[in-house]
Amino acid sequence: MTRPPDAQLTHLGLYVRDLDAMVAFYGDLLGMVVTDSGELRGGRITFMSRNANEHHQLVMVSGRPDDEYSPVSQMSFRVKSLEDLQYYNRTVAKMGLRDLRPSNHGNAWSIYFLDPEGNRIEIYAGSPWYVNQPYQQPLDLDAPADEIRANTKAMVSGDASFQSHETWQRALSERLSG
After folding, report:
1. Phi/psi at 167 (nearest 5 deg)?
2. Element (H, E) at 78
3. Is 118 helix (H, G, I), strand (E, B) or coil?
């Protein structure tokens, strides 16, 4: 049997009741810094990291109901390339898993879907660019990878926050070491 492309668990998403308190907690306790934040589907979302190689290791979304037991919003796995992501997109589609949603975040290309028990999974590949998050556009992963790269660069290069991933990563590294 051929093994699938390598996919590494990289971050966790949590639904939270008090986003500001949770941001302060993870910042104070673990030294994480906010890498981005904004509005998402009528709520707030904040991305945090302690590693300049990862845009976020923790993502928190407001709006968790008081009676909800599990705060986990998703498990996210990084793959090495856009082509690996395209492999997973085809595989997930063949498996018939629910809620398959390819997304272009500018700084990454992702697929979101539900496992057989309804847990949200994200598999993503990083792009060479950075743009403020949240940023989400539809993505056609059936297009050739080079076309997706060119379209993504054209899409995000006009954004005021646009920069290379390397430039963004250096700045985050400086913030983390200071």
Report:
1. -65, -45
2. strand 72-79
3. coil
3-state SS, residue 84: helix
Task: Give me 74's structure tokens.
Answer: 């998703």
Q: What is the pTM of this model?
A: 0.80
CA separation for the pair 86, 142 (Å, rounded): 7
Residue pLDDT tens, the chain, 178 long: 788 999 988 999 988 889 999 999 889 888 899 999 999 989 999 999 999 999 999 999 998 888 876 677 888 999 999 999 999 999 999 999 889 999 999 999 999 988 876 778 899 999 999 999 999 999 999 999 999 999 999 999 999 999 999 999 999 999 988 7
- What CATH code would you report for 7-177? 3.10.180.10
- Separation of alpha carbons 128 and 166, rounded Å: 8
Tokens of 128: 């060479």
